[in-house]
Amino acid sequence: MSSPSAKKIDPVLSGVPETALMTLAVRASEARRTDGIILDPMAVTMVDAIDYDFSKFGFTKRQDMAVRALAFDRETRRYLVDHPAATVVALAEGLQTSFHRLDNSGVGHRFRWLSVDLPQMIALREQLLPPDERVSMCAQSALDYSWMDLVDDSNGVFITAEGLLMYLQPEEALGLIAACAQRFPGGRMMFDLPPAWFAKLISRGVRTSKRYRVPPMPFSMSPAQAADLVNTVPGVRGVHDIPMPEGRGRLWNTIGWAVQRLSLFDPVRPTVTLLEFG
């Protein structure tokens, strides 16, 4: 962790990229708890190294984004157990610390990592995170498909789009899924999306505090719509609706269990989807 005298880093982010700071703050807050559900010391180190007023986001002492991170960790780890030398491609990774958590999760140290994000975000990651010979950075939009040329998929590929697709236009999001399915047969892709009602609410402008407004989310998808990707996107051979891991507290877990398993909640719950490409 940075010493009190160390000069902190000004992130200089706005718009959608700034949401990476909110996600980081929530995850670090959870990691600091003695009963925290996520072990993420790198997130704590990063928050301590950044010169930013995280109170701008309002309430960050919550567990939802840590639970989401654990869902992505779990499915990525399952893939790496079967494909230990695979490449993980993290699209619009922001300030996620997934590589470091997975590298300490017992899956070995043969897998490689490609982080694809906008230049300002990659520059910030390079300032905040220690270099690793297995981690490569690609400073460009995920919608510039030339990043695919950098992927060694000979030992498998797992693509994550955590917190990305909702900020794209529908044709952009579906185009990205289709391009990945065509380019990486045998690989997998995981993404999350809000329910339609929430995306619509956000489009009207929702503030988490007096100083921060969540960016619009043009794209959403119900579980049924996600399941239909197997019929509408060439190359998608399987679609899995991924349940969220348990969080902290009986009430949280009871509600989560019901929302995930009772179909009447499908139109109003977020989706976490895993695609298999064939």
Can you give a write-up of this model?
The structure is a single chain. The protein is an alpha/beta fold. It folds into two domains: 15-57, no CATH class; 66-277, Rossmann fold. Helix content is 38%, strand content 17%. The protein has ten helices and nine strands. The chain has helices at 15-32, 41-49, 64-82, 98-103, 119-128, 170-183, 196-203, 223-227, 229-232, 250-261, and strands at 87-91, 112-117, 135-139, 157-161, 188-193, 206-209, 212-214, 236-241, 271-277. The strands form two sheets. A seven-stranded mixed beta sheet has the order 3-2-1-4-5-9-8. A two-stranded antiparallel sheet has the order 6-7. Helix 1 (15-32) packs across helix 2 (41-49). It starts with 14 loop residues before the first helix and ends with a strand. The model has no long low-confidence stretch (mean pLDDT 93).
What topology emerges from the helices and strands here?
Elements: H1 15-32, H2 41-49, H3 64-82, E1 87-91, H4 98-103, E2 112-117, H5 119-128, E3 135-139, E4 157-161, H6 170-183, E5 188-193, H7 196-203, E6 206-209, E7 212-214, H8 223-227, H9 229-232, E8 236-241, H10 250-261, E9 271-277
Parallel strand pairs: 1-2, 1-4, 2-3, 4-5
Antiparallel strand pairs: 5-9, 6-7, 8-9
CATH superfamily of the largest domain: Vaccinia Virus protein VP39
CATH class of the largest domain: Alpha Beta
Silhouette: globular
Query: Which spans of ≥5 residues are poorly predicted at pLDDT below 50?
Result: none
Average pLDDT number: 93
Secondary-structure element series: HHHEHEHEEHEHEEHHEHE
**Gyration radius from CA atoms, angstroms:** 18 Å
Structural class, from secondary structure content?
A: alpha/beta
Q: Tell me the CATH architecture of the largest domain.
A: 3-Layer(aba) Sandwich
> Helix amount, in percent?
25-40%
User: Counting H and I runs of at least 4 residues, what is the number of helices?
Assistant: 10
Spatially, the strands of the biggest sheet line up as 3-2-1-4-5-9-8
Enzyme class: transferase
GO molecular function: methyltransferase activity
Organism: Mycolicibacterium arenosum
EC number: 2.1.1.-
